[in-house]
Amino acid sequence: MRTRIEVPAKFDLGGSLGFLVGQLSKRMTGEFNTRLSVHALTTGQWAVLACLWHEDGLTQSELSKRTGIDAATLTEMLKRMSRRGLVRRMRDERNNRYQRVYLTRYDTALRDELTAMATSVNARAVHGFSATERIVFADLLTRATVNMACTSSAENESASDEENHP
Q1: How many domains does the chain have?
Q2: Are 94 and 146 in the same domain?
Q3: What is the pLDDT of residue 164?
Q4: Domain extent for 70
Q5: DSSP annotation of 165
Q6: I need a surface site. Which of 58, 75, 88, 97 has the fewest CB within 10 A?
């Protein structure tokens, strides 16, 4: 016998922040992956390249933090990228426990093309937004992401209380 979970009658899936953000993410990722497929790249690989274009020689753990890709998945991704000649991994000279990741070549044409693709997908998502709305939207998404990064709902409630009661 199945147990039925009671859902409040007034819950509106179409108005759910999690649902809406998830749908937006799926659509943007899908479109970006389609564009990246011309270069046989994925959005995860793009994120790695974008981080390294900004700061070459990051540790694998730093790349994992910055991209949000878990360590095991990132390790396999970096192996594939290494086989393709996109990156190379080397032990840190000062601390052998760390692996650093480096671009094998700094291809500005590829960087510029992929960055233009990402910018285009982002622009499509906020088409019709004013400049102020774009800034506010990005700020709100960033704040919501930080809220969800808290380790417990009690931390979120505490932070929320502090914001509402200075």
Answers
A1: 2
A2: no
A3: 46
A4: 28-117
A5: -
A6: 97
